[in-house]
């Protein structure tokens, strides 16, 4: 049975699962689907197109599936899809998709801290931690287990790799390859995220291969040459292949 505060406003067309807690002054619009065991504290708004999974906790002032901040948006029916076990803190805003991709997607087990914004058509993976007041423009992709500090800015269409550590107050218009620390002004490669990889249980041999792969790649004047050399030296290390593929497929270029 759901626990719905009498001061909450829920459209009759909204679909709710079981055992949800809906606090006072929450607003749930039509075309919203909510799973089970979610907790919405006071003053949470789930706009048109929200798809909320299970076991999420959403804090006061959060606004989910807002109208995209994109002048090309013409009111098309799009969604904002949020997985399971996420903590969405105070005043977080997440826009729904546009005709470009049709949906904004947030994975599972993420911590989205206070006052951060995720723009239209973004894709956030699993297990990410995103700091206070960080802002993502439209169509940013963040892979799993990225740690992004407070007050960071990400240009539209940028791609952020897995297991990175991004320094607070940093901005980027280029892609951030996996397993690295990135920071300073202008943003640049600041080494491999050794502490983060050890905490996540990466074997020593794998960490050494990642470190050596980046040494090879960044030692070359042309990244393409460094990628070929790293791939040749570590043909069986999937993490090195991930790095190489990430750089090869980058559309905005990677930091150096």
Key features of this structure:
18% helix; 27% strand; 28 strands; eleven-stranded mixed β-sheet; elongated; nine-stranded parallel β-sheet; 4 helices; 256 residues; alpha/beta
Q: Please state the average pLDDT score.
A: 97
Low-pLDDT residue intervals, each spanning 5 or more residues: none
Strand content: 25-35%
Radius of gyration: 20 Å
DSSP E strands, number = 28
Helix content: 10-25%
**Distance N terminus to C terminus?**
53 Å
What would you call the shape?
Answer: elongated
Provide the structure class: alpha/beta
Largest β sheet strand count, sense and barrel closure: 11 strands, mixed
Helical run tally: 4
Across the major sheet, the strand order is: 1-4-7-10-13-16-19-22-25-27-28
Quick structural overview:
The chain has 256 residues and is of the alpha/beta class. Helix content is 18%, strand content 27%.
Can you offer a commentary on this structure?
With 256 residues, this protein is an alpha/beta fold. The strands form 3 sheets. An 11-stranded mixed sheet has the order 1-4-7-10-13-16-19-22-25-27-28. The protein has a 9-stranded parallel sheet with strand order 2-5-8-11-14-17-20-23-26, with no helix packed on it. It has an 8-stranded parallel sheet with strand order 3-6-9-12-15-18-21-24, with no helix packed on it. The longest helix is centred in the C-terminal third of the chain and has 16 residues.
């Amino acid at each position: 049975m759901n626990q719905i505060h009498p001061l909450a406003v829920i459209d009759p067309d909204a679909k709710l699962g079981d055992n949800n807690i809906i606090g006072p002054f929450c607003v749930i619009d039509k075309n919203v689907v909510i799973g089970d065991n979610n907790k919405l504290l006071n003053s949470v708004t789930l706009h048109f197109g929200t798809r909320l999974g299970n076991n999420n906790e959403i804090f006061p002032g959060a606004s989910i599936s807002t109208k995209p901040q994109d002048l090309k948006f013409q009111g098309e029916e799009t969604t904002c899809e949020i997985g399971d076990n996420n903590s969405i803190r105070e005043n977080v805003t997440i826009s729904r998709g546009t005709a470009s991709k049709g949906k904004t997607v947030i994975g599972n087990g993420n911590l989205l801290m206070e006052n951060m914004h995720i723009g239209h058509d973004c894709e956030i993976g699993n297990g990410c931690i995103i700091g206070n007041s960080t802002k993502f423009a439209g169509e940013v992709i963040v892979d799993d287990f990225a740690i992004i500090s407070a007050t960071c800015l990400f240009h539209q269409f940028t791609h952020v790799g897995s297991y990175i550590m991004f320094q607070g107050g940093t901005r980027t218009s280029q892609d951030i390859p996996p397993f690295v620390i990135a920071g300073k002004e202008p943003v640049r490669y600041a080494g491999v995220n050794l502490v983060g990889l050890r905490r996540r249980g990466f074997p020593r041999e794998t960490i050494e291969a990642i470190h050596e792969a980046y040494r090879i790649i960044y030692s070359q004047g042309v990244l393409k040459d460094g990628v070929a050399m790293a791939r040749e030296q570590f043909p069986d290390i999937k993490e090195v292949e991930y790095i190489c593929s990430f750089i090869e497929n980058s559309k905005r270029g990677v930091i150096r």
